[in-house]
Design brief:
372 residues; 3 domains; two-stranded antiparallel sheet; 14 helices
Amino acid sequence: MIRDSALIDKLIADLHFHNFLNVVEGDNFFTSVDHTIENLQSVLNAIGLDNKLNAHKDFYHGGNVQTTEKSDYINTYLDDVFIDYFFRTYKFKEIIFPKGLCHEQITPEGIVHPKEDISLDLNNLYDRCTFANNIFRLFGVDSELKNQFPCNKYIKSLSMGQRIFGLHSWCFVLINDEPIYKMYLDTFINNYYPGHSLERTDHRGQTIKEFVKFVYGKYHTDIFSTFPINHLSSLQKFEDGFSQIRDKKIFGQYTIEEILLIYALLVDKFLLHKNSFLLNLCFCIKSKLLENSILNDFIYFEDNNMSSKSIEPYINSMDMYLRFASHTKSKAYTFKPINDVMCQVDLFGKPSVKLISYSNTMPLPYLYKNIT
């Protein structure tokens, strides 16, 4: 993933406040000019960032954000721009939801309930939102797939949650809730990334491969010995259930395994953490994940786009401001509902944009206003 320090510094200094912050040079920045601090705090109050940033504590030498939390907002934004770039440019095969398997199609007019087969193009933002929403429903709450595979122990056995993306969009998601998988991940991180999470890894695709090799190259029987036999038996039936359906092609040209891996990229951004659905997939797909075309194509994309120059044309300062603005308290942004999936966003008199706020895992409304 692109986490270039120079780009981050540039975003903080040049984009984050977009002329709201006047940079003062010198080693004693903000320490000797109380009036400057007061003016900056007034700006933070005016644009609704006072609950996120503090002029006295969060800035130094040219306005850089010190705190890890604020840097993480920027890193997450960069990740979204990068993965959105992949989804916009990758040559996906056609995905077809057969009649009855797509309950909610997300469109510019709102949610519709299709009565025929639905074809999805994942280069299209609305289709990506439709995909994320319906994969959750099919494998988490609805009965259509369960009716097709009535004895399967994988379908509708997945844990579910709700996640906020970019502060202003939300999505129901499939998550991992298996303690054995979490313990394996802890062991992997402690061995290879001591004292850290995997969020800052430069090559997420390659990290997934390293994790799979670790799990199946070093079988940790001590982890299994801490769990009762009935738990291990249920887990085996769960993984066997995945194996029974993994190669089925009910969504067009993609297998269920490929469909779920695309879902993990869209929702988890290929980030391994304890609650990620991706972690669940690593154990279900097992060592065959090393040969998966979706994962390998993403690794190729990462390797060939590691320079920040590849995404700079798609960085929009107002999209980043949005990551820091309160949905209800911001005095700079206003949000007006348009329909059941979308709202109109206004920033000080700038041209309005439309934000998909339902099942949109990479909310970048200002970028999409410029490229559509």
